[in-house]
Amino acid sequence: MPRLQSREAATSVVAIDAGRLTADSPFLSVAPADDLGVRGTRHVFAILEPVDDVPGVEVAAREVLDLMHDELARRGGQSPTAAILGAVEAANAWLCTANVDRPLAHRLRFGLTLILARDDDLYLAQVPPSQVLIGQEGELYAFPGLETWRGRRRLAEEAQPLGLFPEIEPELYHTRIERGDLITLVSTSLARVIDLAPQEVFVAGDAGAVADHLLGLAQTFALSDGYGAAIAVTGAEAGARPSAEISFLRRAASMFSHLLPEETAERLQSRARRSREALDRRASAVHTGGTPEDGPDIDSGDAAPAGPVGGADTARRFPPARHDEPLVVGFPGHDPDGVYWEPHAEHGGADDAPEAAWPDDGAFADPVDDGDHGEGRRTLTELLAGAVLALSAAVVGVWQLTVNRDRPIEQPRDDGTLGLPRLGRYEDRPRLPDFTGIRARLPRAPVGRLTGVVALVLIVCLTGALIFSVHNSRVRAREAKIEQLFQEAVAQRQQALEQTSPLAAQAYLEAAEARIRQAQAAGLDAVRAEQELAAIATTRDQALGIDRLANIQVLGGVPAAPEGVSPRIFFGNGQLYVFTDALYRLDTDGTKLIRLLGPDDLVGGEPVGTLLGAAWGDGSPIAFSGTAAYLFDPATATWSRQPLGTFGTAYAGIVQSNGYGGNLYLLSPSSGQILKFASGAFAQQPEDWTGGLAAEDLTQATDMEIDGRIYVLLADGRVLDFYRSALEHTYTPTVTPAIHDAVALSAQPGRPYMYVADGEGRILRLTRDGAVVQQFMAGAGAPSLANIRDIAVDDILGVAYVLTDQALLQVHLPPPPAR
Fold first, then answer.
1. How far is it, in rounded angstroms, from Cα 45 to Cα 31?
2. How high is the pLDDT of residue 241?
3. What tens digit of pLDDT does each residue of 658-688 get?
4. How far is the C-alpha of 641 from the C-alpha of 630, rounded, in Å?
5. Which helix (H) or strand (E) holds 212?
6. How far apart are CA 480 and CA 522, in angstroms?
7. In this predicted model, what pLDDT tens digit does every residue of 184-241 receive, in sequence order?
8. Which of 75, 95, 781, 809 has a Cα at 20 to 30 A from 632?
9. What pLDDT is stored for residue 554 in this prediction?
10. pLDDT of 484 strictly over 90
11. Taking the CA of residue 58 as centre, how many other CA atoms within 13 Å lie in the half-sphere pointing to its CB?
12. Residue 604 · residue 640 · CB < 8 Å
């Protein structure tokens, strides 16, 4: 397999061009990454997606990749964000210049994913159309989401690839990488089918397995072009960074501050502000995309720029800082060294803010002494009003933490992380409501018995309303999920009808069935589920060319064959013979089995014993045991016994026997042979008819037919065609689903078709050269064809007799299609 792999499979590349595997792709740039994530290392990975297949696109792709590598090397002293943006802008400028002299239809346009790794920091710039997947901590993150490719064949109208406009605004992401992480770059042709198969391999950390999976997808969906690369992080140290713990403590402190009394919370927050103001921010290792060593040394007196340099949209690239953290804004425009600044006192920062004055006690001030200390002037209305305000505030807070948190968050495309772990995302953090105004107005009053009863009733009512609201929210979310899964199944079923490849159609239908099963587990209505599953089954029959049989008749039960004996049925003189524990003939009415020869019968003064097989001989049936053959004389209606020549032990493991021209042929998979007993010389040792030819294949044989040529059926569905002891042809039926358990073969002399049955209850009609004409399965409501042991087909009448484990069935087959 042409994959490029480094030591420990840190990187692996798959490339397909015009249906052929190639060693590499001109649209990929993947270097060895054995030390990816190690301190002091630097790596660059890139993938280009040509929007149009125009002349010179491969040469241009190599030029663009080389240009970006050179630009990143030239900007090695800058911050990572400045370097990666400069490389993208340089590539876009080169393409725009090249497009000036090109016709409109031959413009060069590319989607891009560019990855720059410095130490264990990974920076990603993306220009659509492009696709990257990152597996971290057992989770898969896709940029963009894989669902965006469903049903899409053209470039999105809002997409602005490289080479389209002079100005380019790539989307920027950042994460920290650890050992076990896995990065996968794929072309859009592969991105469209990744969602149709399991994705666990993309988080397993094995680059080679990802490459094999991508190659399997390309083969399954018959992709003529596609390429991708998997990069496993094998060098970085595993484990979380202390910053994650600090971030967690900061969140916890912020949440608990809202639960403290107003005065205490204000004092703590004021103390924290005063502590931060005393810090020398210039010494802080704070940056927006580069390591502290990359950031320029900017004096605190430098004036801030009036706006972003070069038209960069910093609000999109970097999320806004919270009000309780120092603001750091990056302007990565045209300044080669990058510009990073912080608001100081001279720019209206926190240093200019006067210390907040303590508010008076308000409603908590001591009441005026009017003789009864004010207690008697608190009316029940005021007490109830205070209780209602307190309970309302509590319910709102709990509601914010439960209902709103369950609501899915619409993730902005340009917030810089999109869910990658180990990064704080300000917009996704739960925030407790500010109850400062409410707490300041709550009356101070003793809690009496009546007040407690009223408060308890209110708590019960509000709790019930909260539970009802949460329940309704979850029910709506579950119903929305069920409907989404159901609609995805319908869309995939419709896509299966559009496929020209049965294998691709089967993959879409399997994905649709999986969606319905998931929806059923979530609570999909049983009637809707059964209707859609029935529609999927009908679509599968149409896509795979399966004819459903309705005219199936059970003729009756049959005795079971002894262990180690292969039951079979065969024609002779227009009559059907059945061999299981004994040899039987089906009467002319097709309702009764007439016993002809059994183990307890005496022939030539000796008991027959266990029969191993039976066949139609030279004008009469013939049966055999491990040591003797039994021939029937139609004139006297008697059996005669002839000893069989052996090699010292009785025969065993014979799966099929046939008579032709007075000779007896035995198929012995255990020895990989076809044994021939010559007519009139059964007592002599048999001839190895194949002479050792195809012995390994014959060990997988399951059935045999003779009509002047010998056809041998193998378990994988192949048919070996022998003539005069020579293997002339091997036929492999091409059908979906593929044959994995072929059990029976039927062929009549002089007829153009052969018939193969498998263990899945399927009968295939084949031409003599192995081409599939039709495949048949039992229809709804018809008797099952499961556990087929043998078949005998009258190709003239279009009637097949099927022997299963327990019954004999008669099946009327549709005629073959007109040629």
1. 7
2. 47
3. 999 889 999 999 999 999 999 989 999 999 9
4. 5
5. helix 207-220
6. 10
7. 999 998 998 998 888 889 998 688 899 999 999 888 888 889 999 999 988 766 544 4
8. 809
9. 94
10. yes
11. 4
12. yes
- pLDDT surpasses 70 at 6: no
**What single-letter DSSP state applies at residue 601?**
-
Residue 49 near residue 129, CB atoms below 8 Å: yes
Q: How would you list the strands of the sheet with 583-586, edge to edge?
A: 568-572, 575-579, 583-586, 593-597
Question: Residue 182's beta-bridge partner residues?
Answer: 135, 232
Task: Determine the Cα–Cα distance for residues 558 and 579; give it in Å rounded to an integer.
Answer: 9
How many CB atoms sit inside 10 A of residue 806's CB? 12
- Pinpoint the alpha helices (H) of 442-525: 449-497, 502-522
For residues 600-621, one letter each, b for 16 or more C-beta atoms within 10 angstroms of the residue's C-beta and e for the rest, the string is ebebeeeebeebbbbbbbeeeb
SS3 607: strand
- The full length of the chain comes to 819
Confirm if 753 and 707 have CB atoms less than 8 A apart: no
Phi/psi region, residue 321 (left: phi>0; alpha: psi -120 to 50; beta: rest), is: beta
**Hey, what are 19's tokens?**
């249906």
**pLDDT value of residue 311:** 36
The whole-angstrom separation of Cα 301 and Cα 343 is: 10
Number of H helices, E strands in the chain: 13, 41
Q: What b-and-e string marks burial along 478-489, b requiring 16 or more CB atoms within 10 Å of the CB?
A: eeeebeebbebb
- Rounded to whole angstroms, what are the CA distances from 16 to 107, 211, 228, 500? 24, 12, 9, 20
Whole-angstrom distance, CA of residue 224 vs CA of residue 72: 33
| Alpha-carbon gap, residue 566 to 435, rounded angstroms | 83
Assign 283 a pLDDT band (cuts: 50, 70, 90): very low
Nearest to 448 by CA among 383, 527, 499: 383
Question: CB neighbours (10 Å) of residue 12?
Answer: 25
Residue 7 reports pLDDT greater than 90 = no
Q: How far apart are CA 2 and CA 218, in angstroms?
A: 14
Higher per-residue confidence, 302 vs 247:
247
Dig out the tokens for 790 from the structure.
């043998």
3-state secondary structure of 719: strand
How far apart (Å, rounded) are the C-alpha atoms in residues 363 and 679? 119
State which H helix or E strand residue 30 sits in: strand 28-30
Whether residue 149 has pLDDT greater than 90: no
Paired tokens of 353: 């803010």
Extract the tokens encoding 776.
């048949």
Confidence (pTM): 0.50
Q: How remote is the C-alpha of 174 from its chain's centroid?
A: 26
Q: Please, what's the largest Cα pairwise distance for the chain?
A: 137
Distance CA 651, CA 644 (A): 9
Alpha-carbon distance of 66 to 86, in angstroms, equals 14
Single out the residue of 716, 751, 744 nearest to residue 811, CA to CA. 744
Using DSSP, state whether 641 is helix, strand or coil: strand
pLDDT for the residue 306: 37
430: exposed, middle or buried (Cβ count in 10 Å: 0-12, 13-18, 19+): exposed
Answer with the residue of higher pLDDT: 576 or 158. 576
- Pair 174, 417: CB distance under 8 Å: yes
What three-state secondary structure class fits 536?
A: helix
* Residue linked to tokens 């061009």: 17
Predicted confidence at residue 403, as pLDDT, reads 53
Q: What is the DSSP letter of 675?
A: E
